[in-house]
Write a structure and sequence with these properties.
Elements: E1 7-11, E2 18-22, E3 32-33, E4 40-41, H1 50-54, H2 60-66
Antiparallel strand pairs: 1-2, 3-4
The structure holds zinc ion (ZN).
Residues 12, 14-15, 17, 34, 36-37, 39 line the site of zinc ion (ZN).
Length: 78
C-alpha cells in the first residue's frame, strides 16, 4: 500500500543541469557527481541525501514520513 515516487529530477546548484535519477528504495544517495559540470553534490546540512537537497522529489523515507509513517530507516541515522 506504500507507493513511492521512485524518480527524482536532480538540479545541479552549480550549473543548473537537470537529470532524472531513479532513487534506491532501501538506501540513500549521499553523493552524486553532476553530469554537467562534474562537481560532487553533497546533501545540505540537515538533509539526508542529495534528493532531499536538490531533487524535485524527496527520498522514499521522507515521502513515507510525510505521509505520517515512521521513517526509521533513513540514511543510516539510527
Ligand atoms: Zn553541475
Amino acid at each position: 500500500m506504500s507507493k513511492f515516487i521512485g524518480e527524482s529530477e536532480l538540479i545541479c546548484p552549480e550549473c543548473g543541469y537537470k537529470e532524472t535519477l531513479t532513487m534506491p528504495l532501501d538506501a540513500c544517495l549521499w553523493f552524486h557527481e553532476c553530469t554537467g559540470c562534474h562537481i560532487l553534490l553533497k546533501p545540505k546540512t540537515g538533509d539526508c541525501c542529495v534528493f532531499c537537497s536538490y531533487g524535485s522529489v524527496s527520498c522514499p523515507p521522507i515521502q513515507l514520513q510525510n505521509k505520517g509513517g515512521v521513517a526509521d530507516v533513513c540514511c543510516g541515522k539510527t
